[in-house]
Each structure stands twice: as structure tokens, then as C-alpha cells.
């Protein structure tokens, strides 16, 4: 395991990044496939069911955001500690991270019971849609411990550079979801047909199974840090350090929930079809952003480790290669969205109205994919360097501060097309801001080219 850690600071950057990022890209693609398959099955229940699941997405995403945000904080501190050679602090970080995650599990049960119905009622007056949305949301919130604990373990393994383990276990949970979806939604193999509630049960079952698989793998072979009660000691400095990265990361990841909630309110005034279109888009865009996120997840521990070890040149090289890989993915996503949006929408059994509205949305929103490469990668860079506030600022620009007010204003002129147009404009603003912040941070020593290369020679 020490050799595995050491290679993060010595192996040539491109093959190292590939070995870290490719497993995560594959696992993200599997997860994207699950998200699409889940929606395809739900769509067969009718547009009301698809709309119900779309309304549930903001609250569901809050769970995921809290899990990933805490995990990113733990992973970053863990990798920096290992880069500095402090194994004791790494053990304490992993143990404290899982303990804090357990506390979050309890909080989300309370949130699910108290908030679900009042929140969903804000976005629909249709009782049938509301009932299905509640059925789905109560399950995914009140049984969210599987998601929270699974991702907690996943981020620890990622912080150690053990990407193949996370690939296999994440894929295992997604496969379980895919297998259970038709069985529980439509009532196959003797099970009752549970509709959207069945989709929710399949989701949490896959997450819980993946968590227990992590526990088994950890018990069979220690990954390089020890999670044990003896490391669970009061350390407010370490808690603050984890949350200084984790809270901004969580807020950053909740941006889509807030964005969708706000846009649903605007779109619902125009037509419920546009609400469904937005939900479908967020399912489809996972095929683009999850592989890109796989690169970022592979990049983060490498940057943190080398940052802790003081190897600035390697940090810059990692950023350059990560940005190049993300640009390639985004170019492919743009090409498909512009050339064949109808083919993508056919996956959801789109009727003529949904097809027409959806094609326009995909073509307009995809114009911002390329610019988003900078925002996505640089936001991950800031997290890896322990700069949670800067990462949050980039995401705030990408997903809320520009999109909502601009979308509202443009919708008064162009209807739904104005909202879709706000997406690429927001990405352009965020990309410029992210580049400026990294350029000026610490004299530009981590900027992937130009100023940093002239001032700081490669390590």
C-alpha cells in the first residue's frame, strides 16, 4: 500500500492520471446508464410518473451532495496528510469522517419525514403527481444511510488512490439497481408492482448493498488507513479543516437542486412539459458530466498528494491533462446533442410535444458544454488544494447566480428558450471567473501554463 501511495508523487503524470481517472470514468458511465435506465422504466408509467421523479430530484440530490461534499473534504485532507507523510492524521481523518457521516444519516431521516410533502407541494397542484413524488422521495431520504455511508467509504478509497476498488463497488451497486428496477416497478418474479416507489426501493437497495461490500473489502484487506474508535478523539481543528472543504463542496453540489427547484417554478408557469424536459435533460447530461467528473475524481487525490509533497510542477501537469481530457468529452457531448437530440429523447418514449420542446432545449444548453470544461476542472482543483470557498464561487456562478435571474429575464422575451439560453451564458461567465481566480492564486503557481510556467520551474 505504501508503494501505491508513493507512485502518486513519482509516476509519470499522464499514465498515472489515466490509471486513476479511467476506472472512475467507467464507473461514472455505469452510474449514468443506471440513471437513464431508471428514467426509461419510469417513463413507461406515463408523463405524470416522469414528472413526479423529476420533482423529487432536488431533495434526492441534497442527500447525494451532503455525502459527496463530506467525502471530498475527508478525501482531500487524507491525501494531503499522506503527501506530508502524516499517517496518524490520515487515520484520524478517515475515522472522524465516517463518524460525522453517521450523524448526517440521522439528520436526513428527520428531513425526509418533515420536509418532503411541503416541499413537493410548492411545485405541483396535481394530486396524482404529488402522491407519486412523495412515494419516491420518502424512500430515498429516509433510507439514505446507504448512499451516505457508501460514498463516505468511496471517498476514503479514492483519497488513497484505490480507484479500481471504487470502480468495481460503485458499478456493483448500480447493477443491483438496474436489475431490481423492472422487478419492483412492474411487479416481476412474484413481486407486487410498486411503480415509482419500486424505483426508489431499487435505488436504496443498490446503495446499501454497495456500502456493505465496502465493509467486507475493508475487513479483508486494510486499504492503507485504519478506521477505528481509538482515532475518534475530539479534534476541532481537524473537524474545521474537513468542513472547510466539505461544506462548500456540499453547497456546490446542491446547486443543481436549487437550480432545478427555481427553474421548475418558472417553467411550470409556461407548461408542465417543460418541467419534464428539464428532468430529462438532467438525466441525459449525466452521460457527459459523469465521465468528466470521473476525470476530476481521479485528478483530486493526485493534486492533493503532490500539493502536500510540495511538487508544484506535477500539480500543473495534472491540471493540464485533466483539462484536455474533459474538453474531449465535452466536445463529443456537444456534437451528439446538436446532431441527434431526437434520438436521445426517443429513449424516454417522448411524445410529439415533449420531443419538440426537448430538442430545442438540448441544442441550446449544449452550446455551453465546452466552456463548462474550465469550470468543472478548476472547481475540482480548488477542492484538491483545500480552497473550498473558491470552488463554491465557481459553482455558484455556473449553476445558480447567473442562470436563474438571467433565465427568468430571458423567459419573458423568448419563453422556455430563454431559460435554455441562460445555461451556456452562465458557463462562459463561470469559466472566465475560475481561470482568473486560479491565475491570481499564490502568484499563479498552479495555473496550467503561461504565468506559472515562467515563474515556477517544473518539479
Shape: globular
Taken in chain order, the helices and strands follow as HHHHHHHHHHHHHHHHHHH
Mean pLDDT figure = 85
Summing up helix and strand content along with how strands pair, one would put the structural category as mainly alpha
Q: For the CA atoms, what is the radius of gyration?
A: 21 Å
What fraction of the residues are assigned to beta strands by DSSP? Answer: under 5%
Main sheet?
none
- Helix coverage percent: over 70%
Low-confidence stretches: 451-459
Oligomer: single chain
Terminal-residue CA separation: 24 Å
Strand segment count: 0
Helix count, per DSSP? 19
Plain-language structure description:
The protein has 459 residues and is an all-alpha fold. Helix content is 83%, strand content 0%. It has 19 helices and no strands. It has helices at 2-10, 13-43, 47-83, 87-121, 127-142, 145-159, 163-186, 196-220, 236-270, 272-284, 286-308, 312-339, 341-346, 352-365, 369-384, 388-401, 403-414, 416-440, 451-455. Helix 2 runs parallel beside helix 7 (163-186), helix 4 runs antiparallel to helix 6 (145-159) and helix 9 runs parallel beside helix 16. It is globular, with a radius of gyration of 21 Å. It starts with a helix and ends with a helix. Mean pLDDT is 85; it is low at 451-459.
Amino acid at each position: 500500500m505504501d508503494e501505491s501511495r508513493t507512485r502518486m508523487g513519482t509516476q509519470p503524470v499522464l499514465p498515472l492520471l489515466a490509471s486513476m481517472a479511467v476506472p472512475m470514468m467507467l464507473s461514472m458511465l455505469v452510474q449514468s446508464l443506471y440513471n437513464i435506465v431508471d428514467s426509461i422504466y419510469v417513463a413507461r408509467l406515463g408523463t405524470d410518473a416522469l414528472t413526479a421523479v423529476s420533482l423529487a430530484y432536488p431533495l434526492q440530490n441534497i442527500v447525494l451532495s451532503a455525502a459527496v461534499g463530506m467525502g471530498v473534504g475527508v478525501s482531500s485532507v487524507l491525501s494531503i496528510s499522506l503527501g506530508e507523510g502524516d499517517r496518524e492524521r490520515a487515520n484520524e481523518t478517515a475515522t472522524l469522517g465516517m463518524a460525522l457521516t453517521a450523524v448526517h444519516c440521522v439528520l436526513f431521516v428527520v428531513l425526509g419525514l418533515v420536509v418532503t410533502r411541503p416541499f413537493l407541494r410548492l411545485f405541483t397542484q396535481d394530486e396524482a403527481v404529488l402522491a407519486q413524488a412523495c412515494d419516491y422521495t420518502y424512500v430515498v431520504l429516509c433510507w439514505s444511510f446507504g448512499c451516505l455511508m457508501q460514498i463516505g467509504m468511496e471517498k476514503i478509497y479514492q483519497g488513497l488512490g484505490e480507484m479500481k476498488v471504487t470502480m468495481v463497488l460503485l458499478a456493483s451497486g448500480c447493477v443491483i439497481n438496474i436489475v431490481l428496477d423492472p422487478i419492483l416497478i412492474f411487479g416481476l418474479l412474484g413481486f407486487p408492482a410498486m411503480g415509482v416507489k419500486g424505483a426508489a426501493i431499487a435505488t436504496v437497495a443498490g446503495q446499501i448493498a454497495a456500502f456493505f461490500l465496502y465493509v467486507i473489502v475493508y475487513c479483508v484487506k486494510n486499504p492503507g488507513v485504519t478506521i477505528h474508535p481509538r482515532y475518534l478523539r475530539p479534534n476541532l481543528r481537524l473537524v474545521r479543516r474537513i468542513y472547510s472543504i466539505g461544506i462548500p463542496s456540499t453547497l456546490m453540489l446542491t446547486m443543481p437542486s436549487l437550480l432545478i427547484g427555481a427553474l421548475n417554478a418558472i417553467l411550470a408557469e409556461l407548461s408542465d412539459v417543460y418541467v419534464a424536459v428539464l428532468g430529462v435533460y438532467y438525466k441525459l447530461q449525466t452521460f457527459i458530466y459523469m465521465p468528466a467528473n470521473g476525470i476530476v475524481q481521479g485528478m483530486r487525490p493526485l493534486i492533493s498528494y503532490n500539493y502536500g509533497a510540495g511538487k508544484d510542477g506535477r500539480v500543473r501537469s495534472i491540471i493540464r491533462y485533466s483539462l484536455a481530457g474533459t474538453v474531449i468529452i465535452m466536445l463529443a457531448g456537444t456534437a451528439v446533442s446538436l446532431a441527434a437530440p431526437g434520438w436521445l429523447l426517443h429513449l424516454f418514449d417522448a411524445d410529439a410535444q415533449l420531443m419538440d420542446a426537448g430538442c430545442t432545449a438540448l441544442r441550446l444548453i449544449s452550446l455551453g458544454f465546452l466552456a463548462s470544461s474550465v469550470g468543472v476542472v478548476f472547481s475540482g482543483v480548488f477542492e484538491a488544494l483545500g480552497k473550498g470557498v473558491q470552488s463554491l464561487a465557481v459553482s455558484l456562478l455556473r449553476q445558480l447566480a447567473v442562470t436563474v435571474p438571467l433565465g427568468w429575464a430571458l423567459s419573458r422575451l423568448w419563453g422556455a428558450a430563454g431559460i435554455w439560453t441562460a445555461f451556456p451564458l452562465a458557463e462562459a461567465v463561470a469559466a472566465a471567473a475560475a481561470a482568473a481566480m486560479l491565475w491570481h492564486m499564490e502568484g499563479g503557481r498552479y495555473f496550467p501554463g503561461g504565468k506559472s510556467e515562467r515563474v515556477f520551474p517544473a518539479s
